[in-house]
Amino acid sequence: MEASSENLIAAAGDVWQTLTALIVAYAFSALGAILILIIGWIIAGLAERWSYSGLGAFKHIDETIKRFISKTLRYMILVLVGITVLSQFGVQTTSIIAALGAAGLAIGLALQGTLQNIAAGLMLLFLRPFRVGEYVDAGDVAGTIKEIGLFATELRTFDGLYVMAPNSSLWGKPIKNFSRNTTRRADIAVGIGYNDNVELGRSLLLDMMKQEPRVFDDPAPMVFVTELADNSVNLGLRYWSQSSDYEVLKSDMTNRAKSELEAHGLSIPFPQRDVHHFYEAGLPPREAAAGSDIN
């Protein structure tokens, strides 16, 4: 019994000595790791705030991209701090970096579509083919931009519907921005009869556009013959105006063009067809007309 007690006491003493040696050996490493964590956390926060404030000096940089860059910088610093802390305890950081690289590659392959949308979102935010409040048409998607995110863009269609479009679907197609340029050209087609005076029609329509204050004098409005159609002589009205006036002004000018032409005796033709009756010899006119051909 005495031998067993002595062995137990000796084993406990060995364990205590081992723990003491470990504590002494890693005390400075643990203290250094704690200091590195505290300092790294402070530096990461300061870097996030400074980068966000610095990017705020550039007015053309979107709010979303400012937050994304500042957050990314913070997390990169924190990752470096974590690797440095592990190296304090003798961990081989080379293998950790390799493991992180492999994990990043696997995650990238799994989230290929999502990363594609993020890349497209960054390009949209940097190159800015459209801004919030502008009306755009990108093929399958058209509407007023409500928000540009890293993954998707929110739009409101012309008839009031909500649309969330993945950024890759917008970036991969030509984008028509109807709000970016402050001026816009409008073309209106108006038909008059073949028996009407073409020069009178051109003069009336040109005077009408010149009297409209929303129509620009430079470039000057124009009226010209565009086509000798089946039932009418088509006149083209072309003018420039503010983009904000485009829809309402085009409707007003179309309505006024009809009223102006009719007020001066010019007709607005509609599709017509001439019917010719060919009478067969020996048949009364009524019976021949019943079997006539219509061209």
TrEMBL record:
<comment type="subunit">
    <text>Homoheptamer.</text>
</comment>
<feature type="transmembrane region" description="Helical">
    <location>
        <begin position="68"/>
        <end position="90"/>
    </location>
</feature>
<dbReference type="InterPro" id="IPR045275">
    <property type="entry name" value="MscS_archaea/bacteria_type"/>
</dbReference>
<keyword id="KW-1133">Transmembrane helix</keyword>
<keyword id="KW-1003">Cell membrane</keyword>
<keyword id="KW-0472">Membrane</keyword>
<keyword id="KW-0407">Ion channel</keyword>
<keyword id="KW-0997">Cell inner membrane</keyword>
<keyword id="KW-0813">Transport</keyword>
<dbReference type="InterPro" id="IPR049142">
    <property type="entry name" value="MS_channel_1st"/>
</dbReference>
<keyword id="KW-0406">Ion transport</keyword>
<dbReference type="InterPro" id="IPR023408">
    <property type="entry name" value="MscS_beta-dom_sf"/>
</dbReference>
<dbReference type="InterPro" id="IPR010920">
    <property type="entry name" value="LSM_dom_sf"/>
</dbReference>
<dbReference type="Pfam" id="PF21082">
    <property type="entry name" value="MS_channel_3rd"/>
</dbReference>
<dbReference type="Pfam" id="PF05552">
    <property type="entry name" value="MS_channel_1st_1"/>
</dbReference>
<dbReference type="Pfam" id="PF00924">
    <property type="entry name" value="MS_channel_2nd"/>
</dbReference>
<feature type="transmembrane region" description="Helical">
    <location>
        <begin position="23"/>
        <end position="47"/>
    </location>
</feature>
<keyword id="KW-0812">Transmembrane</keyword>
<dbReference type="InterPro" id="IPR008910">
    <property type="entry name" value="MSC_TM_helix"/>
</dbReference>
<dbReference type="InterPro" id="IPR049278">
    <property type="entry name" value="MS_channel_C"/>
</dbReference>
<feature type="domain" description="Mechanosensitive ion channel transmembrane helices 2/3">
    <location>
        <begin position="71"/>
        <end position="112"/>
    </location>
</feature>
<feature type="transmembrane region" description="Helical">
    <location>
        <begin position="96"/>
        <end position="127"/>
    </location>
</feature>
<comment type="similarity">
    <text>Belongs to the MscS (TC 1.A.23) family.</text>
</comment>
<dbReference type="InterPro" id="IPR011066">
    <property type="entry name" value="MscS_channel_C_sf"/>
</dbReference>
<dbReference type="InterPro" id="IPR006685">
    <property type="entry name" value="MscS_channel_2nd"/>
</dbReference>
<feature type="domain" description="Mechanosensitive ion channel MscS C-terminal">
    <location>
        <begin position="188"/>
        <end position="268"/>
    </location>
</feature>
<protein>
    <recommendedName>
        <fullName>Small-conductance mechanosensitive channel</fullName>
    </recommendedName>
</protein>
<comment type="function">
    <text>Mechanosensitive channel that participates in the regulation of osmotic pressure changes within the cell, opening in response to stretch forces in the membrane lipid bilayer, without the need for other proteins. Contributes to normal resistance to hypoosmotic shock. Forms an ion channel of 1.0 nanosiemens conductance with a slight preference for anions.</text>
</comment>
<dbReference type="Pfam" id="PF21088">
    <property type="entry name" value="MS_channel_1st"/>
</dbReference>
<feature type="domain" description="Mechanosensitive ion channel MscS">
    <location>
        <begin position="114"/>
        <end position="180"/>
    </location>
</feature>
<dbReference type="InterPro" id="IPR011014">
    <property type="entry name" value="MscS_channel_TM-2"/>
</dbReference>
